[in-house]
Inverse folding.
């Protein structure tokens, strides 16, 4: 998943679909500073091409990103001077330091494939938080809120490209399986590719119990982040 072809159009297609990274970053920064007014450093986990990170860099003195897809990292690094975006797995990365805030956006936490991996990931997050630091996690859909058979489609025209995106998501046991097809029309021709994404359908209770197991108490904010909600936890 998240291969080179997708990395090349990732920013364009989300911009064309109306995603407002700066508004989302400002919202998350407000959540952080309500609990940690002193926060000046932030690390964004599963940062993809760094679009949220660019916005966070305008709101925090120091930022870093971690991303498992090498093509995504290559795109993200072009947006920053210095070693800001790191290639790493959210379950077991080590940046050798702590941050005042940590974010994991866009439902990426769902790519943990079991409760054991969820625990491992949240424990890794907690290790990278300074005392008094704040963690904001945008979860994937809960088991109780996922729509089986969900279909979506968009056609966007951005920077001389026309991109058609259609997706179909089904429940596969305790996972969601989303197949996404992209058709990209450029002046030199038309290409097509597809990607498949698996994500765990944890319940809200499973998330809350996982936060507790790693020593964090998380508050859940319903309705935000396109309806998925957000978990906000502070490290004491």
């Amino acid at each position: 998943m998240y291969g080179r072809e997708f990395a090349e159009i990732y920013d364009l297609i989300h911009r064309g679909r109306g995603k407002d990274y700066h508004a989302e970053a400002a919202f998350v920064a407000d959540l952080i500073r309500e609990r940690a007014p002193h926060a000046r450093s932030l690390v964004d986990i599963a940062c993809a091409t760094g679009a949220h990170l660019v916005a966070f860099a305008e709101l925090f003195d120091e930022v870093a990103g971690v991303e498992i897809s090498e093509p995504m990292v290559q795109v993200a690094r072009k947006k920053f001077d210095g070693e800001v975006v790191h290639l790493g797995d959210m379950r077991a990365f080590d940046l050798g330091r702590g941050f005042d805030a940590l974010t994991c956006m866009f439902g990426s936490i769902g790519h943990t494939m079991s409760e054991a991996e969820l625990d491992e990931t949240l424990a890794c997050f907690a290790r990278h938080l300074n005392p008094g630091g704040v963690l904001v996690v945008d979860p994937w859909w809960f088991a109780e809120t996922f729509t089986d058979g969900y279909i979506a489609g968009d056609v966007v025209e951005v920077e001389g490209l026309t991109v058609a995106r259609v997706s179909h998501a089904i429940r596969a046991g305790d996972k969601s399986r989303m197949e996404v097809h992209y058709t990209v029309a450029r002046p030199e021709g038309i290409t097509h590719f597809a990607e498949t994404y698996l994500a765990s359908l944890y319940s809200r209770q499973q998330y809350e119990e996982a936060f507790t197991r790693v020593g964090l108490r998380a508050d859940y904010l319903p309705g935000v982040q396109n309806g998925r909600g957000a978990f906000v936890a502070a490290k004491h």
